[in-house]
Write the structure tokens for this entry.
Amino acid sequence: MCHISGMYTQGLDTPGRDCGPSPDTAALEARFQQRVDADEKIEPKDWMPAGYRQTLIRQISQHAHSEIVGMLPEGNWITRAPSLRRKVVLIAKVQDEGGHGMYLYSAAETLGISRARMLEQLLAGTAKYSSIFNYPTLTWADVGAIGWLVDGAAIMNQIPLCRCSYGPYARAMVRICKEESFHQRQGFEIMLSLSRGSAGQRAMAQDALNRWWWPSIMMFGPSDGQSKHTEQSMRWKIKRFTNDELRQRFIDTTVPQAQFLGLLVPDPKLRWNEGTRHYEFGEIDWQEFQSVLKGNGPCNRERLEARRNAHDRGTWVREAAAAHALKQQARAQSARRTKDSEEAA
Amino acid sequence: MNNPVSQDQDWPLFEVFIRSRAGLEHKHVGSLHAADAQMAVEHARDVYTRRQEGVSIWVVRSSDITASDPAEADALFEPARDKIYRHPTFYAIPDEVKNL
């Protein structure tokens, strides 16, 4: 008999614990892979290999951190949005990113890591997040470019994750993908307005595309040959397509959109290949990618500093809320005791 | 960082259930941390109903939920598997008989 103290989705008790006689790990792993191959979903309390759990914790927490840090570059423009309409839209979008971070932290917690631990890793600078958010938002057009390109690339990455083998992650992604679609469209709409505007506005849109294009296509991660996690992740059905496949798909769908805007994609080697029905594109500067990832991007320090400040400045709120909860609890208990003794008398 | 985060600083975990509209049941949508149940309802409003997903919210502390064990799923659910006579399709009724 095995004592169940936890919860069927989120409140994890001891992960992967065994009840009764345990078959050896190899047999468990084989059974696990069979379930994955049969497209069964894996749920928090099911047995899973330690590597599967670790891979998911890493991927989901990085994803959550990206949503949270991703609020910063766009938040930078909330007070300077060019109209009330643009402002309410941007606030709603940034709030969505915060919400996405919350869904994802919850999903990661089902694997046995605490929220506090993930936050600690982010604030200490030991956790990674998408390096795209270490670039600055210099003009209003950057807000458009982020929605169109960065959210566009994110959607391309995330749609296959809705079918990920891990149930809580897949469910979070379904919710997120539904919401991201508005993000991308509002971004494209900003770019469209600018590209149909004055010469200065068109130049601003082109400049934003120039600066965001390469970082956006780097978002899909290293080329397949260099990606150390891809093969195993695909076997576990955490990943459904390789980085290069998704990148190609993004380029193929986005280049015609840029053409519609009348903007020039900043890649002299970009050309349509009629034979493959795909765009060919130039060499990606992986040195830049690695350097930004290692902390040397234009805004790495600023982003972490902003998160640390937010955490520190929120301390008194968290403490007050916890004290309030304790006081309410004590009041409720003493009210119950009074009522009980009155009834007894 | 003046306030290092430690494991025990997490607020309690709550599971969130949303009724999407009157007439439907509350459905589990996810979880969140909150200092107390009232705050959990308020946070659930912001995290899970930004697009009119609900008309009512339930929250319950995750630690108050007792769940079945996946390892015992067969023992629990297997017995219902061969009882196909519990389904209407088990019974062959001639086509000319109506309203059955």
Notes: The beta strands of chain B are 13-19, 26-33, 56-61.
